[in-house]
Amino acid sequence: MIVTRGLTKRYGRVLAVDGVDLDVREGDRYGFLGPNGSGKTTMVRLLLGLVYATSGEIEVLGERVPARSRSVLPRIGALVEGPAAYPHLSGRQNLALLDAAGPGGSRRTRKSRIEDALEQVGLSGVDRRPVRTYSLGMRQRLGLAAALLRRPSLLILDEPTNGLDPRGIREIRDLLTGLNEAGTTVFLSSHLLAEVEQLCTRVGIVDRGRLVVQDDLATLRAPTGHVEVATPDAARVVAMLDGRVVDRDGERLVVRHADPAALNAALVAEGIRVSAIGTRRRTLEDVVLEVTGHGSDRVAP
Ligand SMILES: Nc1ncnc2c1ncn2[C@@H]1O[C@H](COP(=O)(O)OP(=O)(O)OP(=O)(O)O)[C@@H](O)[C@H]1O
């Protein structure tokens, strides 16, 4: 769906995007994760043909960008920083203008497409209110509605939850998950670890313009060969397992063991009370720390 090869964008002495080989596959919810200033917005602009690469190649929906932008762009829904709208017009009127101005999209179906898009982002109820009375979250959702107008098979979104409160963030997450399950591939940039961890199936981690990791979230979060155990009988577990307890914090233990069910059975057979047990997995924060040498101080948890 999106492939780049050696993609590089230089602004003077700053390498905003540095030799990136991106691979976004059909059906992905792809999170492009990196701290502020790491090149995410530049990447999104490159993909949309809004800025030209210094070197490298871009293919979106099987076509070269920017050479074939005119054919590619109408098939993409995009949201780039701070979606613009006429403040004195309603959301519906803004979408009608946008729809009429853009290429493609039949006039006959315009009204129903606008209604669908407003419905999808939860704005159909606000009806005739001018956009100037909208909250930041509502504006962001209107931007998303605009991205959905053409019922695109690919969404490219730059920090789509910027400025939203926790409830708004959850609504957008549910919306994007639903669209994805119905067949839309989603590419989004974010500096929020938790957002990417909760929403995405595939992750690219960018550090100072370079793509340092690109993999399925499930692979990145593979089991570590350790089991986490919570038990009021921690001291007995330490004695029983002799050397396999690698970490202890009060009632919480980390045990070198691959199978939580078997470990649970062994503990219970000894009369040890187990209040919680499960496989230990790496968090996305662990992965970010490993590959960049800096974690939550630069990428928000
Ligand atoms: N038009 C420009 N002219 C000069 N330098 C630029 C320009 N756009 C971006 N840069 C620089 O390129 C680097 C990457 O910026 P970019 O905005 O792509 O990062 P980002 O990850 O999107 O950050 P943020 O989350 O803060 O938007 C930064 O050092 C930035 O200062």
Automatic annotation (TrEMBL):
The keyword ATP-binding applies. InterPro entries: AAA+_ATPase (IPR003593), ABC_transporter-like_ATP-bd (IPR003439), ABC_transporter-like_CS (IPR017871), P-loop_NTPase (IPR027417). Belongs to the ABC transporter superfamily. Transmembrane segments: none annotated. PANTHER family: ABC TRANSPORTER, ATP-BINDING PROTEIN (PTHR43335:SF4). The keyword Transport applies. Residues 2-233 form the ABC transporter domain. GO terms for molecular function: ATP binding; ATP hydrolysis activity. This is ABC-2 type transport system ATP-binding protein. It holds the Pfam family ABC_tran. Coiled coil: none annotated. PROSITE patterns: ABC_TRANSPORTER_1 (PS00211), ABC_TRANSPORTER_2 (PS50893). Keywords: ATP-binding, Nucleotide-binding, Transport.
